[in-house]
Structure to design on (320 residues):
């Protein structure tokens, strides 16, 4: 089943706010509904957001085809619905470039984005599983953060796709899914996906990660990205940076898995990325809270970046 697709003239997506309790498919027929789904994280994860961006422009073309101003405003709404994952704006812009050729061309471009993400997931799984085996030997003990599985892509996923591939090869050790406060993408979504895949796992609170690494319960940290900057700085779900520091201190590899569509060489460093600040009420109600949704892991803490086309060994001085 695809996390997001275009079906009979509208977007259909798995509503991730309902998981793990209910697997519910939501039909999205307007740009406003899509933007709401993006804000609420009903659809989330960098590759899935890229596809949402493409299909969002298709919705805009369908809704406002004859009205240039309304169309431009709708495309802008889609493009800027969330700022951090480069895939969203990139997907929307790519589809929008086909607007002069009409709705069918826009939809074809969005379909191509979807198909590219499906192919990228498969390529990353193979490359990433090969790399983890090379770095850690057989059956590595893995810690992952946030959700990087099929739910974050279309099928397959990024880092969790690598974990699944190792499992398929019979070469996966114990898996720890970092809870991912405050919206629990790890405890709700990654746990659900691992369960569906028949992979044993345990959930840990985010703060336990570095200690579990220090205690020898993790051989490798493998996770995704929302944007990889020109210098290799990696922007990903908040909590990633702490895991990278823990991995460095424990002397274990820290591997980022993301499609080329997440690599943004036009953004030189992590300091140049707009980090989404979300409502403090997601963290706790009744007291003030600060809620950055992402953080920046400096490139010198990243061992390697695996994309659908290459493995970049930052630890060996290779460049993005
Ligand atoms: O706020 P989210 O759930 O959209 O954040 C998602 C992440 O940070 C993922 O780790 C990232 O998009 C990589 S997904 C393959």
């Amino acid at each position: 089943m695809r996390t997001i697709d275009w079906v009979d003239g509208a977007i259909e997506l798995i509503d991730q706010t309902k998981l793990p309790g209910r697997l519910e498919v939501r039909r999205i027929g307007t740009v406003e509904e899509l933007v709401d789904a993006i804000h609420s994280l009903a659809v989330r994860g960098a590759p899935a957001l890229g596809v949402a961006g493409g299909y969002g422009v298709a919705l805009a073309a369908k809704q406002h085809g004859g009205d240039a101003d309304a169309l431009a405003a709708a495309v802008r709404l889609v493009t800027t619905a969330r700022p951090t994952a480069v895939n969203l704006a990139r997907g929307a812009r790519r589809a929008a470039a086909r607007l002069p050729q009409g709705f069918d061309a826009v939809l074809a471009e969005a379909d191509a984005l979807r198909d590219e993400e499906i192919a990228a997931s498969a390529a990353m799984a193979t490359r990433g599983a090969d790399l983890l085996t090379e770095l850690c030997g057989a059956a590595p003990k893995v810690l992952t953060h946030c959700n990087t599985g099929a739910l974050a892509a279309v099928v397959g996923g990024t880092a969790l796709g690598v974990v699944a591939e190792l499992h398929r090869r019979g070469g996966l050790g114990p898996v720890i899914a970092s809870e991912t406060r405050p919206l629990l993408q790890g405890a709700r979504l990654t746990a659900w996906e691992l369960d569906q895949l028949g992979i044993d796992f345990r959930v840990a609170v985010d703060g336990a990660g570095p200690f579990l690494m220090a205690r020898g319960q993790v051989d490798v940290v493998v996770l995704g990205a929302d944007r990889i900057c020109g210098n290799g700085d990696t922007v990903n779900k908040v909590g990633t940076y702490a895991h990278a520091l823990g991995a460095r201190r424990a002397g274990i590899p820290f591997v980022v898995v993301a499609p080329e569509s997440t690599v943004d060489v036009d953004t030189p460093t992590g300091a140049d990325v707009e980090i989404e600040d979300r409502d403090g009420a997601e963290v706790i109600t009744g007291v003030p809270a600060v809620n950055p949704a992402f953080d920046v892991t400096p490139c010198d803490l990243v061992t390697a970046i695996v994309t659908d086309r290459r493995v970049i060994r930052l630890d060996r001085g290779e460049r993005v």
Remarks:
- The chain has two domains: 4-116, 125-316.
- Residues 4-116 form a domain with the Four Helix Bundle (Hemerythrin (Met), subunit A) fold (CATH 1.20.120.420).
- The longest strand covers residues 10-14.
